[in-house]
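Me: I'm a chemist; would you kindly supply a protein sequence with its structure tokens?

Assistant:
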Amino acid sequence: MASGTVETARRRALVVGCGMAGCAAAWWLEHEGWEVVLVDKEAEPYPSSYLLQLDAQATRVLRLMGGQEIIDEVTFAAPAMSVRWGTRKVRELKLDGDSDWRLARRSVLLSRLFAHLPSTVQKRLGVGLEALEHRSDDVLARFSDGSSESFDVVVGADGLHSTVRRLTLASEAHSVYRNGLTHVWINADVPLPDGRAVIASREGMLSLIYPFLDTDQTSVMAVVPVPGSTTPDEPMLVEQVCDMVERLGPDMRAVAAEARKSEDTKLTRFSQVRLPRWYTRRVVLLGDSAHCIDPVSGMGAHASLPGAKVLAESLRDTDDVTLAFARFEAEIRPFAKTAQSITARTVEFSTRAEGRNRAATLAGGIGDLLATIPATLTRHSNRRKTPFGAEPSRPKQITKL
């Protein structure tokens, strides 16, 4: 090449996992000028029909991604809410809904988000990541189909059971917090009376009951204590939850009756990913793989969509990927840490989780919240060039002389 000739090169990014965090990362990195390869070990990665929530900030970021049509067609405004507590009678606190908060069926929303990705993003479903080899200037990734490729960065957006996290930072046993609580998920073929969602703390369970506003169905999710040495009995736990729902009030009896007949049920364990750091060399974790808050929080989309935007813009602002990863983590960690603490302590307080003093649980939650305020204030006062509500900026090109 003649002296002084400028060659434009696109940096290559591997994004592992095509859930919300992975699709958002692929979109924003491609927007910033990266060549993106998106892989997922599942050939059909969106089987679940359970509800997913977008808060106001996640919805704004999806709009910035050109996703207004997705919002209009597959999401619906979060309903008004009824909070019930106590054991002897129905006592309610009624809250209005917020039009900027949206609900959607997880499978439908994620399928549309995947289809919304630019055609220039290379999508490979049914291909798992097998190994990562750090080299001086790149990372060599080996895949389940026998192929291998080099990348400038690897983004692990592969969720709670992250392969990228296991290969680079910590095993699941050393990074996932569990507290003996189990989620019981039930989809019932009956509309929720008056369309008002219900949150209830009763009989040692915390329950969230939401309407599917696109059909006459109701989603019931309850957090139930299950001793660590006990294998969860799904039919028994479903029946226990249905009994509790029935006792929430006369308006819940039809929901309980249909929930008892439902065959659309599942169990999951309360889980949070807690790591001292989310990156190493040229590999970074995003979304649930870095800081799973737990589905009961309803904040997974908040951590995934804005997080992907912050990551891509941090990489745009510097050629030093380690510095970019550190800036990304400094921006997102205060929210993730606070959300994890509030979520864990709320469910542990409500369910009287095994071995946990309720007063200490509540005091610890307040302490965690207060400890996070200085970091949050600093983060907002030092916010870099592009706030979440701004238009996407132009991609940066990397030049080689």
Summary: Residues 356-391, 393-401 have pLDDT under 50 and may be disordered. The CA atoms of residues 309 and 326 lie 15 Å apart. DSSP finds eleven helices and 23 strands in the chain. The longest strand covers residues 217-225.
